[in-house]
């Protein structure tokens, strides 16, 4: 191995270390609700688990290992075993209700973060959500009672989060007089307002935000609010529930965004394509815009010269500076083939074995020997195997033979390489 290859091997190793450092740690334990044990009740409801807790009334766990009674399923809108998890084996269903006197009340789920959020730091959040179809009651008044929105809220607090309503139960009717919570809404999932939104199907949601500092708990809940008493679908002073709906939540992720990215990449002599998404956490590498200092925008770019390139990765909440050092490096493998060999069993140069080295993975290797008429007299796909000089198990006459080596070098887009030369065989 030449010193140049040795030095560049070290550079590439350090680059890989830097890449691994960019992979953020999810600050949420059990993000896909797979570790929660099956609840010991008929409706798979949970209030408190080792990882998650309900913010008010209980929430429902849908898990492929926790079967449900069909009779129970029919009575609860947020229990639909026909909807499989977005990821893993479990997810959470949150039921919402609209009361006759104009309150919208939704369940929520919360957890303690593995790390307290830092002031002036930016964070990336994502989850998969779905909306269940509305199930109306016979008492639903005329008017558009669903026009007030049924979206999900992402809340944060420095203490366990509690969202509850003051209600009075009259028989099987409920009379709500207020809604209270001890957390702050930071993000809204309003994907149900999108024109192509479909109920009962998973929809990916993501956003980012700047933390105020000291946030320790995160909650995901349906929105809780009071409808204007003047709305035509409100029956003020009437008790009871008007309609039921709900949300599914799965695959929750919260990552701290880096303040800057400092990385290194290589190009072949003459230029090569740089793929910036290779140096940004794959969770959100395709969520932002890459803007170079010269105004070029794009995650991929042909670079022809070595140097340091500055750009920004722009997300809705923050622009992350990127410093990219591009170095030029020979893209061919280091190859050595002797120009003479003597297969005479004297222990010296008895076999023609090419020496090939690259810091990149080599595949599709093929070594061939040709006689003066262009006929293949030897070939192998094994880099450790060489030609012992025999043709059809006989030693040929002395003379010049041609060789050709083809291989694929696996870097960036990869490169198919063909190299050739001559060798003299003597006895």
Overview of the molecule:
It is a single chain. By secondary structure, the chain is mainly beta. The chain has 2 helices and 29 strands. The longest helix is centred in the first third of the chain and has 20 residues. It is 6% helix and 43% strand. It folds into 3 domains: 89 residues, Immunoglobulin-like (Sandwich), CATH 2.60.40; 212 residues, Jelly Rolls; 92 residues, Sandwich (Immunoglobulin-like). Strands 1, 3, 4, 5, 7, 8, 13, 15 and 16 form a 9-stranded antiparallel β-sheet that branches. The N terminus is likely disordered.
Which structural traits does this protein have?
Jelly Rolls, 43% strand, mainly beta, elongated, Immunoglobulin-like, 9-stranded antiparallel beta sheet, 3 domains
Write the layout of secondary structure elements.
Layout: H1 3-22, E1 45-46, E2 53-54, E3 59-63, H2 70-75, E4 90-99, E5 103-106, E6 108-112, E7 122-131, E8 135-136, E9 152-157, E10 163-170, E11 173-181, E12 184-189, E13 203-210, E14 217-222, E15 225-226, E16 241-256, E17 261-267, E18 272-275, E19 289-292, E20 300-303, E21 307-314, E22 319-328, E23 334-336, E24 340-341, E25 355-357, E26 361-370, E27 376-380, E28 399-410, E29 415-425
């Amino acid at each position: 191995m030449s010193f140049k290859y040795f030095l560049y091997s070290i550079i590439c190793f350090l680059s890989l270390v830097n890449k691994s450092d960019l992979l953020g740690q999810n600050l949420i334990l059990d993000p896909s609700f797979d570790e929660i044990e099956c609840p010991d009740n008929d409706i798979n409801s949970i209030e408190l688990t080792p990882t998650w807790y309900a913010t008010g009334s209980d929430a429902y766990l849908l898990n492929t290992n926790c079967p449900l009674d069909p009779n129970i399923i029919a009575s609860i809108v947020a229990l639909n075993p026909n909807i499989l998890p977005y990821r893993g084996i479990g997810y959470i269903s949150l039921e919402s209700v609209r009361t006759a006197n104009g309150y919208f009340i939704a369940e929520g789920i919360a957890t303690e973060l593995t790390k307290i959020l830092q002031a002036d730091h930016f964070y990336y959040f994502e989850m998969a959500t779905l909306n269940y179809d509305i199930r109306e009651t016979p008492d639903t008044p005329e008017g558009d009672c669903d026009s007030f929105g049924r979206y999900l809220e992402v809340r944060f607090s420095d203490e366990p989060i509690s969202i509850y309503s003051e209600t009075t139960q009259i028989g099987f009717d409920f009379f709500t007089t207020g809604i209270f919570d001890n957390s702050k809404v930071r993000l809204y999932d309003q994907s149900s307002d999108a024109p192509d939104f479909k109920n009962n199907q998973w929809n990916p949601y993501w956003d980012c935000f700047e933390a105020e500092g000291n946030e320790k708990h995160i909650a995901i809940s349906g929105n809780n609010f009071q409808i204007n008493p003047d709305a035509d679908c409100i029956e003020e002073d009437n008790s009871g529930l008007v309609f039921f709906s709900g949300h599914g939540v799965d695959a929750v992720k919260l990552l701290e965004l880096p303040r800057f990215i400092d990385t290194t990449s290589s190009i072949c002599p003459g230029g090569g394509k740089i793929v910036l998404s290779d140096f940004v956490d794959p969770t959100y590498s395709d969520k932002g815009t890459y803007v170079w200092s010269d105004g070029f925008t794009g995650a991929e770019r042909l670079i022809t010269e070595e140097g340091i390139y500055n750009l920004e990765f722009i997300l809705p909440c923050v622009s992350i500076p990127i410093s990219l050092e591009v170095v030029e490096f020979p893209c061919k493998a280091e190859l050595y083939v002797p120009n003479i060999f003597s297969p005479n069993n004297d222990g010296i140069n008895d076999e023609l074995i090419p020496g090939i080295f690259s810091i990149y993975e080599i595949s599709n290797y093929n070594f061939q020997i040709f006689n003066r008429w262009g006929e293949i007299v030897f070939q192998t796909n094994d880099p450790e195997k060489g030609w012992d000089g025999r043709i059809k198990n006989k030693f040929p006459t002395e003379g010049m033979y041609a060789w050709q080596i083809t291989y694929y070098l696996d870097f960036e887009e990869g490169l198919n390489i063909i190299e050739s030369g001559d060798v003299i065989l003597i006895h």
